[in-house]
Amino acid sequence: MIDTQEIEVQRTEHSRLSEINFKNLPFGKVFSDHALIAKYTNGEWQAPKIIPYGDIHLSPATSALHYGQAVFEGMKAFKNPDGEILVFRPEKNHERINRSAERLCMPKITEHIFIEGIKQLVSLDRNWVPNEPDSSMYIRPFMIGTDPFLGVKPSDDYLFMIITSPVGPYYSKPLHLKVETEFTRAAKGGVGFAKAAGNYASAMLPAKKAQNQGIDQLIWTDAKEHKYLEEAGTMNMMAVIDGKLITPPTGSTILAGVTRESFLILSREAGYIVEERPIAIEELISVARSGKLEELFGVGTAATTAHVAKLSYEDETFELPPIESRKISNQIGNQLIGIKMGTVEDVHNWNMKF
Ligand code: COI
């Protein structure tokens, strides 16, 4: 049973809504009027509150700033043609933030704070949910350890917040990706499966080096041998070879994407053969070389379905087939975005609607 009790709201006195150009939204730079905040202290979560969006006050000794107890999530809210708000499978993100929290020795967040918090926060700022194509309201819950203490130990106190941001596309064009074989994102037994802030920090230098060579993003490979494809940091990776949809299995080094899982379910239902199995870079490159890599794409909440136009590996760069010719990524990608936007029937009851 979800505890649906009303969350206390302190409304902003100065809405910024009229200042926003919804026709030209960047990703993640504009924030809606309100945020949800909850504090964990004395071993329990205190009542959450919705407050005006704004800066927060933290001690310079805040443990998350030094030792990285910080986890987050990402979801999107859309408006369906009837003007109702849809949020895609938020219970999955709730489960995942709790798995991330457990790995980083942080407390679990209650369903009331996470799910009901999203519902009441997004309801209050429903006019911030864009109607424009390719736009949505990105929902970013996060939790940090807040003890002002420089000893290395799990924080006693935590801050959980949800902020929301009307966004345009994360990637605005098909991508040029490079297979990374020097740096490592995650090793077995580490925190790769968690949505931990530090995973993103450690990816920045390798990504920047690649961007300096005109590459958009990296495809990470396993830490041990750099022989197997893992994920791309902002999205899970999928390939189509011989008409089969292939993606690496999730494990301790790959984020269990909600978009990934949903994409696989829809693909199986559509009758495609889906293989969750390790993908050797050697295999990927050999099919790319012989022109048999039919599709390569990433899937994620922010990224949606992100087609890969070019793939680089060591000294070679492959131009992949034209985007319009790609069957599975286009068909299932469109079906999935249609479900999220309420234009395709949601037979699985995936959307939370309010
Ligand atoms: C998401 O897809 O929600 C992500 O978290 C990816 C990125 C913006 C960090």
Write the layout of secondary structure elements.
Layout: E1 8-9, E2 34-41, E3 44-45, E4 49-52, H1 63-67, E5 70-72, E6 75-79, E7 85-88, H2 90-103, H3 111-124, E8 136-145, E9 158-167, E10 175-179, H4 197-202, H5 204-211, E11 217-219, E12 236-241, E13 244-247, H6 258-269, E14 274-276, H7 281-289, E15 293-300, E16 304-313, E17 316-319, H8 327-341, E18 351-353
Parallel strand pairs: 1-4, 10-11, 10-16, 13-14
Antiparallel strand pairs: 2-3, 2-4, 2-9, 5-8, 6-7, 6-8, 7-18, 8-9, 12-13, 12-15, 15-16, 16-17
Task: Describe the protein's architecture and organization.
- With 354 residues, this protein is of the alpha+beta class.
- The protein folds into 2 domains: 8-169, Aminotransferase class 4, branched-chain amino acid transferase, N-terminal domain (D-amino Acid Aminotransferase, Chain A, domain 1); 175-341, D-amino Acid Aminotransferase, Chain A, domain 2, CATH 3.20.10.
- It has 8 helices and 18 strands.
- The strands form 2 sheets. Strands 1, 2, 3, 4, 5, 6, 7, 8, 9 and 18 form a 10-stranded mixed beta sheet that branches.
- The longest helix is centred in the C-terminal third of the chain and has 15 residues, at 327-341.
- The protein is globular and about 60 Å long.
- The two termini are 17 Å apart.
- The structure holds 2-OXO-4-methylpentanoic acid.
- Residues 74, 234, 300-303 line the site of 2-OXO-4-methylpentanoic acid.
